[in-house]
Amino acid sequence: MKVKITFLKSGDFIFLSQLNLYILFSRAIRRADLPFVPTQGFRPRLKISFLTPALKIGSLSCEEAVFSLSRDVSLKEFSAKLKDTLPEDIFVIFISKY
Amino acid sequence: MINFADFRRPLRYLGREWNLPKKDFKSARYSLRICLCFPELYEVGMSSLGFNIVYRLLNSFDNTACERCFLPAEDLRDFLIDKNIELFSLESKTPLREFDALGFTINSELNFINFLWMLYLAKIPLAEKQRKRPLVIVGGLPNPEPLSAFVDAFYLGEFEPQAGKFVNILSSFKNSSKEQILENISQVEGFYAPSFFSLRKGPKGYNFSAEEDKKSVFPVRVFARDINKIFIPRKPLVPYIQTVHDRAVVEISRGCPNRCKFCQARAIYSPYRQRDEGLILSLIEDIYYNTGYESMSLLGLSTVNHSQINSILDRAVKFSLGNKIKLSLPSLRLDKSIGTVLEKFLPLSSGGITIAVEAASERLRTFIAKEIDISALEDVAKIFGVSNFTTLKLYFMAGLPSETKQDVWEIPRLVKDFYYLCRRASRRKIQFNISISCFMPKPFSRFERERMEDIEELEDKIKFLRKEISRIYGVRFIYPDIGRQVLETILSRGDRNIALVIEDVFWNLVKSRADYRDNFTLYLWDKSFDKFNIDRQQYLGSYKFSPSAWAHLSGHKGL
Ligand code: SF4
Predict the structure, then answer these.
(1) pTM for the whole structure
(2) Which of B68, B94, B359, B428 is deepest in the core (most CB within 10 A)?
(3) ipTM score
């Protein structure tokens, strides 16, 4: 199952690059104990891809990312769990199946 | 306001990590405001377990707000100087000068200069005598004497048992004079106010005595008797940029039951104490779910010595597999059991193995009391053959007491034998790293009175080793920085006189706005040693017949 999230990066978190965001999301998904798909390799990361191009850091922006999950989860559960494990300044606007 | 986007890696200065204590750091409701400082860049400081423990520990007190500050990188540093802005805390961006106390963690003598940089950038006078507030407290140093002129009080040993008393005294004497606070804090074991004691070098050695008008307990190093019952942070901060050790850390033991003579760590963290298996497992789970780290490390000076290591690993590996975490151990001791330990890691696709061999010849190993089982290397090679391990790192030392040419010769021989053993066992490509460091006679180690070899002797040995080891195809040789290690030895064995030199070097670096890596340039230090007519050799030679400048700090006490 794939889930797309549309989120706003604001406040102090405008300084996060896409790589920083990737690590932030990976750890948020693990904290939420959501069923993720790991990548192969030395440091098991998560399958997350960004649909929006990497922007210059330091400005307010709206971006999209797709998470691969290893089994089906209701969007309600997904959004509730993720909300608890994301910092406030990463504001999720919209969640949909992808 | 500073626009952090103008600086490299702006996330260093954000202070918004995951798991930040839920405190309004700016609020006036706290009776005690402390800033914990680490004289290194964010990425290094955030990797220090001790620093993180103290941070959470102090914030666990309701009346205390504890913030952090790291050494700003050169770009921000120069900006602060040019714009006349004071160094500030990360959480609330408050100038350091406004705190009640600054608590520095200094875990390397090579950070002395950075420590002065932080005081300077905060516009706090360097000399202890010229200050009223904030109180400057330094913890983490085995021999803190070289910093005596700059520090109000040192803390010796582990902080957990005394944190409560510390917070109490500082908050109840908040508006008293510095003198009064120091007098009270000096009654608490572990604290050591250097201005309450004199340390003078006489013809027969050092003389340490209490100043007549000052009341204080004699300085002792404090350790926690039971490391199962102390405060253990289960919600460590999770940075958003990669740090040096970017992973969850679970401490399984403190101290070390072995008695290698060159080792300072075992003396500083003695006695050996271990944590219960059940507690370790619950920490692994909690810390994982609270941080989401994709890798985790079990920490201890010699993890294979834990009496329950096998079942701890069984369960930790199972947890790691279930949650797809990378699990690692710090450097391994070459023990008969190493094969069994490594086997447990086979199901995980782990990165590498680090083994501290130190000396290649049996004779020298016996002399330095590094009692390891060299034949266990065969087991290591075998496991390597059937595993996914990709790197192997071996540590050796050069310049150990009693070392002969023959002993040095045996290093490349051992490396070669072991390398071919591994090659035979495995057809995969293995990254082989050989790391050499120079022996340093550090205070409180059993070799504290030995001499450090001269730079020329060490250079010869390193040159020889590099030539021989680089000849083995596929082996990478990692050099020591000899000058830096010499400097580290001098500063670690230093007395109070050396403060003049440290300060002089510092001002020269400030004048030229040097990069931090120039802190270790030996000739800069030599110039200052000459200026004050201090012979640096006196800190490098044998102490067989002269008392050391740190002997008065060898007392331990368990609480
Ligand atoms: S070198 Fe390692 S094994 Fe030896 S005493 Fe020190 S910590 Fe223990």
Answers:
(1) 0.95
(2) B359
(3) 0.94
